[in-house]
Design goal:
single chain, about 675 residues, alpha+beta, Outer membrane efflux proteins (OEP), six-stranded antiparallel beta sheet, two-stranded parallel ribbon, 17 helices, 10 strands, about 45% helix, about 15% strand
Length: about 675
């Protein structure tokens, strides 16, 4: 025994050291590092900045080529013509992460939408739909315990007649005990708790008080039902609040589904913003190219004028004085600098603004469009928009636009889901104002026997415990009521008050959202009319500037040398005016396209206007089966609960129509801008 005890002690100590070592490896502190001998020997390693072990390696395919610049000798680069439809298609195809142009993926990665967000909300184990449904799943529980008792008793009352040992030794109580429990439980949607359990006991001991010491096995099978009659009753309450709810804590399957609908609305909002940013970047790049064309044309005219004046200057003729040659040269280099800026651009602030900026340049806005489309920043090609802005006069019917905005805006639908969620939470909170009264019923079959099981049924009723149980001779039952209630219902009243205030808050937010949408829609519609009228005006200005330049060029070519110095100022000014009118005209067209896009954005039809449609993935087949079965139940629930006496709550009015029917436009109702006059051949 001594040797075995020593070995057991050594094994225990080894096991203890092993557990301590494992516990030390599992601590949250980093392992201690031995600092190098220096003046900072006492510095804590915990204060050092370290590199995370989970950092992913850099993808070689994501390493883009260097950006094009003004010093690149390979200009111009290879162009890739791109329509607006192709840009949106590529954007959606590369949008596992619903990116924006404000840089939030670095600033706030938790707030960025991805294609997995709705599934993450649905599959959340505590508040998701599957997690809420799991509260109604059947559960299986089993326990097995064995016990050996070998104790001396120095008390006759405890000994229960067990004779004492020789020479005054205490009585010895010997006992073998086994307990086996097996239970299946389930909770119904009406709050009913159902349980079926089997409890088996084995008790073999040497107590003479046992009438039949050879019957150590006892077992019983019990069925139990517990039905709430007031608080916690009803399918509506349990589907809204959940079976494990408390005042202020609701996690039912209906609320989980509403959370999923809210996440879908947020995802739709992210997709809409992504399409809006892509179209905005497209028209910004369109204007950058047209602005570059206008500035290049002005520079080329200035170069030609400078060459003529320089020729006069070199030959000493009138009209080629030094100040005039320098003036023409300054005009050329000033316009050449504007061409360089229009090509390369300047850095612009990251933002998701729906306002046309018209700053930057071709390279800057091309990289911005690439970012919106999810392409590499540089791949050796230069994206070039080939879709033209709309030039037709588009009128939006105000009443129809207002009605459409107040029904189709995703923010309105998302807020509607939140209001419905608060309404259901308020109805669940009122249920806790009722006292708790449960009806409880149990039915039990008992059995006692020498053995637990016997393959052959015996005439002796107590041969085995299960044979005795299945005979049905020993039955028990009990029926009763359980009642409890807090005096004052302080927590329940606080929950009702809190739910009422939350509901009022969501309704106030909805009203304010409607006012905000109407204000933004009014601005967008007014902007379409302003941009259209201004585009017509700039077209007329552009046409007049072109005619003025043609007339001055003809006069300058035919003027005598004495008149050329005076006409040079007018000619250079006319060239500058034409370049400015060209740029302003194309800017007004881009602003008009922006305004039309913003009207669709404000009235919730931007995705449809770009032929983008969203579809929700299928649910498990059992969900459709349960929905069909519940729909077939037309009998309302018994009115035992004054809060939940109606049919299941309506949380949705059916699928949302992503396509609206539009009337055909009246013939000749669209007024088009005059065509741009072609450049005359020289």
């Amino acid at each position: 025994m001594g040797t075995m005890g020593t070995a057991a002690g050594c094994a225990t100590r080894q096991l203890t050291w092993l557990l301590l070592m494992l516990a030390g490896c599992a601590t949250s502190h980093p392992p201690t590092k031995t600092p190098a001998p220096s003046a900072n020997r006492g510095r804590r390693v915990d204060l050092q900045i370290e590199d995370p072990a989970a950092c992913a390696p850099i993808d070689a395919a994501a390493m883009a080529a260097p950006p094009p610049n003004l010093l690149d000798a390979n200009l111009p680069p290879k162009f890739r013509d791109l329509t607006l439809e192709e840009a949106i298609q590529i954007t959606l195809a590369n949008s596992d992460v619903v990116r924006d142009l404000g840089g939030s993926v670095l600033r706030d990665p938790e707030g960025v939408h991805t294609i997995n967000d709705p599934s993450i909300v649905t599959s959340e184990p505590r508040l998701g739909v599957e997690g809420a449904l799991s509260e109604f799943d059947a559960s299986l529980a089993a326990t097995f315990f064995f016990q050996k008792n070998d104790r001396p008793l120095n008390n006759q009352f405890q000994a229960l007649g067990i004779p004492a040992g020789p020479n005054g030794a205490p009585a010895l109580f010997l006992q073998d005990i086994g307990t086996y429990n097996l239970e299946i439980g389930k909770r119904s949607a009406f709050g009913t708790q159902m349980a079926l359990r089997n409890v088996t006991d084995y008790n073999f001991n040497n107590a003479p008080a046992n009438n039949a010491p050879n019957l150590p096995w006892g077992t019983y099978v019990e069925g139990e039902l517990r039905q709430p009659l007031l608080q916690g009753y009803g399918a509506n309450f349990n589907r809204i609040a959940g079976p494990r709810s408390a005042p202020g804590i609701y996690a039912g399957v209906v609320l989980a589904r509403l959370n999923a609908d809210i996440s879908l609305a947020e995802f739709e909002s992210g997709v809409r913003d992504l399409v809006s940013n892509t179209e905005s970047a497209y028209w910004e790049l369109y204007f950058a190219f047209r602005d570059l064309d206008a500035k290049m044309a002005a520079r080329n005219r200035a170069l030609k004028t400078w060459q003529e004046v320089h020729a006069y200057f070199m030959t000493g003729r009138r009209g080629g004085d030094a100040d005039q040659e320098a003036q023409a040269r300054e005009q050329y280099f000033r316009l050449d600098a504007e061409v360089q800026i229009a090509l390369a651009g300047r850095p612009i602030e990251k933002s998701n603004s729906n306002l046309f900026q018209g700053t930057g340049g071709v390279y800057t806005h091309e990289r911005r469009l690439r970012r919106a489309m999810g392409l590499l920043a540089n791949d050796g090609e230069l994206l070039r928009p080939v879709s033209d802005p709309p030039q037709a006069r588009i009128e939006f019917a105000w009443n129809e636009a207002v009605s459409e905005a107040l029904t189709r805006r995703v923010e309105i639908r998302r807020q509607g889901w939140r209001i419905r969620k608060r309404e259901l939470e308020l109805s669940a909170a009122r249920n806790f104002l009722l006292p708790r009264m449960d009806a409880v019923a149990r039915q039990r079959f008992r059995g006692l026997g020498h053995d637990l099981l016997d393959s052959e049924r015996s005439d002796y009723a107590f041969d085995s415990a299960y044979q005795n149980l299945t005979g049905g001779n020993f039955q028990e039952w009990d029926v009763g009521m359980e009642f409890s209630m807090p005096l004052g219902f302080r927590q329940a009243n606080a929950a009702v008050r809190n739910a009422t205030l939350r509901l009022a808050r969501e309704r106030m937010i909805l009203a304010e959202q409607q006012h905000e949408i109407l204000s933004d829609l009014s601005n967008a519609v007014a902007e379409t009319r302003r941009a259209y009228v201004v585009a017509q005006t700039y077209y007329n200005r552009r046409h007049a500037a072109y005619q003025q330049l043609q007339a001055l060029e003809a006069i300058y070519q035919n003027a005598d040398e004495a008149e050329k110095p005076r006409l040079l100022d007018l000619l250079l000014d006319a060239q500058q005016r034409l370049a400015d009118s060209d740029s302003r005209y194309y800017r007004s067209l881009a602003e008009y396209a922006f305004a039309i896009k913003n009207v669709h954005f404000e009235k919730g039809s931007l995705l449809e206007a770009n032929q983008v449609y969203l579809a929700e993935g299928p649910w498990p087949s059992k969900a459709y089966f349960d929905a069909a079965r519940r729909d077939s139940l037309t009998r309302p629930a018994p009115g035992l609960n004054y809060v939940m006496r109606h049919r299941p709550p309506v949380v949705s009015h059916g699928p949302y129509a992503q396509v609206m029917g539009y009337a055909e436009p009246v013939e000749n109702s669209l007024e088009r801008l005059p065509p741009v006059p072609p450049t005359p051949k020289k």
